């Protein structure tokens, strides 16, 4: 996709710019004596030694750029390519368009107990993308609801299945990103959430 390629190129430029900035900063710092290890014994100039400087992953990037800029460029390009591929794969994975995810209302949830294992809806917490649909299937014999909100705060008004009989189902399409808690009006120990990215 052209958008991805542009993004990858932009990202590549950004990473190279960061590398160059580090290289330049490294030079400037050395020229001006702003090195982490004090070079004089003046008490006022003593900078405490910190392990931080050694664990910084960018600590030696300036040296690497100076020693072998082509090698560093190659490494950067490889990383950028990998990132680009990953973005492309993830995008294409979702490219077919909106998807429908199934959540079950399991048998036996009309009596408390399922809340102990967060299993009153299965799965109780799901993550989807905006535009996707969740279909709740009631495989129980008792009727349940899928009501946006929480037992403590009550219905949010965003979605509400009203009673879903045993064997029936209810679907809702989430068009807006956000975090949506829901519960069963009949059995308030039944709670779940949908996170929409
Ligand atoms: Cu219920």
TrEMBL record:
Highest taxon of source: Archaea
Needed cofactors: Cu cation
Record-annotated Blue (type 1) copper domain positions: 116-197
Location relative to the cell: Periplasm
One GO location term (cellular component): periplasmic space
Residues that hold Cu cation according to the record: 144, 184, 187, 190
GO MF terms, alphabetically ordered: copper ion binding; electron transfer activity
Pfam families named in the record: Copper-bind
Cofactor binding remark: Binds 1 copper ion per subunit.
Keywords annotated in UniProt: Copper, Electron transport, Membrane, Metal-binding, Periplasm, Transmembrane, Transmembrane helix, Transport
PANTHER family: BLL1555 PROTEIN
Protein name according to UniProt: Blue (Type1) copper domain-containing protein
Organism classification: Archaea, Nitrososphaerota, Nitrososphaeria, Nitrosopumilales, Nitrosopumilaceae
């Amino acid at each position: 996709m052209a958008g991805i390629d542009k993004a990858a190129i932009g990202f590549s430029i950004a990473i190279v710019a960061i590398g160059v900035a580090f290289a330049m900063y490294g030079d400037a710092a050395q020229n001006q004596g702003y090195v982490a290890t004090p070079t004089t014994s003046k008490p006022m100039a003593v900078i405490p030694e910190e392990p931080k400087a050694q664990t910084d992953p960018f600590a030696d990037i300036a040296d690497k750029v100076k020693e072998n800029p082509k090698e560093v460029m190659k490494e950067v390009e490889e990383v950028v390519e990998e990132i680009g591929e990953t973005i492309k794969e993830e995008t294409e994975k979702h490219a077919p368009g909106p998807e429908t995810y199934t959540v079950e209302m399991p048998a036996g949830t009309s009596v408390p107990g399922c809340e102990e294992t967060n299993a009153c809806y299965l799965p109780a917490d799901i993550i989807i993308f905006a535009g996707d649909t969740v279909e709740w299937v009631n495989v129980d014999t008792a009727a349940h609801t899928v009501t946006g909100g929480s037992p403590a705060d009550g219905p949010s008004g965003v979605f509400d299945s009203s009673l879903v009989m045993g064997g029936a189902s209810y679907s809702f399409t989430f068009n807006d990103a956000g975090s949506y808690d829901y519960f069963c009006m009949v059995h308030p120990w039944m709670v779940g959430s949908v996170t929409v990215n």
